[in-house]
Amino acid sequence: FYGKSPISGDSYFWDLSELTRKKSQCPSGAVRCRDYSVARDDEVFYMNLCANAMNKPRECRLLYGSKDLVPKAIGYQTADGVCYSMGDVSTGVWSLLNPNQPRKGVKLTYTGGSQCDGYTYRSVEYHFECDPYAGLGVPRAVFGDCEFVVLWRSAYACPSRPSMLLPIFFWSFSLVAVYLFARFIYNIRVKQMMLDWEAVPHIRLVRFVGASIMIFAHDFWEGLQQLAPEFSERAERTWERIRPSWTRSEYRPVQHSTTTDEEQY
User: Fold this and answer.
1) CA neighbours within 13 Å on the CB side: how many for 88?
2) Which residues, at least 6 apart from 261, have a Cβ–Cβ distance to it below 8 Å?
């Protein structure tokens, strides 16, 4: 989930996928095979995140007569003899807990649960509060009767800033390439320069930069060979296996005889 502060304009990123419980995680521990659960008075809430609850609670199976008849849901509200869906997993909507303070955390809302009264259907809103020391965390409390609010403190609710180095490098390289190409065409079409390297704008600077890169790469490789001779030997063995046959010393091109028929007799 990406969010943006309306005050500073800074962008933030959250990835809470590690909080989702899946059956594929069961071999790593029995706890991961169970849905999250929160008890409140005589009720128990079973829930998952970004995926349907893995298990159908006992109260739901008894009420519907079979686990296959229990509708899938992001979570279930259960009590003695009752079972309600808390929301449809396909309705998830992300937003910020506090738009002015993105570092506070995020919230995830699901709607489309079981009917609560004549006008309201159950929904659940996860409130993920940033706590760098909480690890994965677990849901701690559930509030509300029809529109549930789940409190959850987690280190994964703390945002990270996406790196801008790659976009800056990409656009800078693109602009330089467009400029060089445009000036190259201009030098040929307008200045009537020859179609060769001298028509490239700032050719001396380009050559200087290219030579500097080559020198740096050579010095770096030499230093790497001195510091890690094993790496150098392994690289040479790999090159011997993959290099083209025409570069091998044992390869000799076929030499055709230039002797004429008269010289053979």
Assistant:
1) 8
2) none
* 137 torsion bin: left (phi>0), alpha (psi -120 to 50), beta (else): left
How would you class 214 by CB atoms within 10 Å of its CB: exposed for 0-12, middle for 13-18, buried for 19 or more?
A: exposed
The 3-class secondary structure across 70-89, one letter per residue, is: CCCCCEEEEECCEEEECCCH
- What's the pLDDT tens digit per position in 120-170? 999 999 999 999 999 999 999 999 989 999 999 999 999 876 555 666 777
What's the CA gap between 20 and 27, in Å, rounded? 15
pTM (two decimals): 0.60
- Structure-token match 């449809």, residue found: 88
Q: Which residues contact 52 (CB under 8 A, 6 or more apart)?
A: 72, 73, 74, 89
